[in-house]
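Posting this for the archive.
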Amino acid sequence: MYDHVVLVSIDTLRSDVISANPYKLWPGKYPQSTAPKTAVLDDLAAQGAFFPNTISAAPYTAAAHGAIFTGQYPLRNGVHEFYNGRLRSSSVFTYGKRAGRRTFMKVDFPIILGRELGFTRDIDLYLMEQDDEFIDAVAAADSTVACAHFGGVHLPYGFHNLRFGGEDYRAKVAELEAKLPPDVPPLTDQLIESFRDDEDTDLLLRYKQAVNHLYFSGRYDELFQIYLDGVEHFLRSRLEPFLARLTERMTRTGKRMLLVVFADHGHEFDEMTYGHFNSMSEGVLRVPLIVVGDDVEPALHPQRIRTVDIAPTVMELAGIPTPHTGVFDGTSLAAVVRGQAEVPGHLPAVSEAYTSDTKEFVEYQKRQFRGESQGPLRHVLVGQSAHLGDRRIIRRLGRYRQNFDGIEPIDVTVLERFDDRLVPHPDDGDPAELLAMLEDYGRARQPSVDVPVRAEIRDQLRALGYTI
């Protein structure tokens, strides 16, 4: 039993940037890049159960976190599109609250991890970018289920905003702008994930302008190095001090803490992947999970697991009751974390990517900020992935045009097989079983069919107590 369950979400951290992870993908794709220093995560990986091959259910923040918190795939929990729907399933916070624990959540992206999409439900205290206040709240409580979300690895890489980035952030924007030609096209991607003042917004959009130019110029290696540098800056300047303060306060209280560190998705650049949100890249879908606690057996577990396994695992480790009705799509790996069992081979996984026309999303967000009522944002399914055994299939169904000028439909299917180092290679085998996985998962997405309510059906429903 742990008094405190503290989840730490590092948005946009791909698993293989952690030095302690021996299963790396990025050096083969960006061989000239310099690895970041990741000592704080290396130390945690050595202390705990490290799962470097965890497959995310989606390559963007809202859907990925929904799957992590509920243990259910996005088509079941209500948040599967890039920005639509609301989290409708019970979460780790629901179960913690039922068990009499206080529930806290601190986020860096309140627009996409907030009330609008249902993430504040069952949260007693919701904080925005308030790291110290989060630590104070956890330390003052008798028992908690709490999550601290960090957006510092996300663009603008390493800085998050002017408050955390300071003069280094201003200098980086100036450095990137020096790479721009005088005729750079207007910026289409003006989306924001957090509330910012005028200068902060201006800096973010200028940073994006430079990144967009580098991307559409095909300078993928240069962009990936900027991302790697951002990882190191964030870990050194923000995460390491946060974890040191949290650990010191927990030690003083004498309470037991289960620390669970994970990412929602990774990051990558190539002709099909702009960062992450439109991607089925293995480097984007493969994220780290590190579990640290008194009962945890330190070990490296290379077998594939899924982010939907996090919720049932954490609840069992913490001794928090959950329903016995098969509510989770994932499975508890508590025995593995305690060193009492092995992961039963590579677990099967499914991932999907939806996105929307960038111009439409920008206008939608502007109306949202003005408080105007509107319907759902139009979305397009752009990618699917299924992992089974040592193989996986990728279906790419859409991609952005130059400078995000709309989405064009495509239909590209790729079959891959993983070697002993967990590196994917093209495979010419039979894809039928993997395609069936995607088909079975997609059935949950079918639109509802109107059923005519005849008089006898209405009478039966009324007899059962329904008002119809």
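Residues 463-468 have pLDDT under 50 and may be disordered. The first strand starts at residue 4 and ends at 10.
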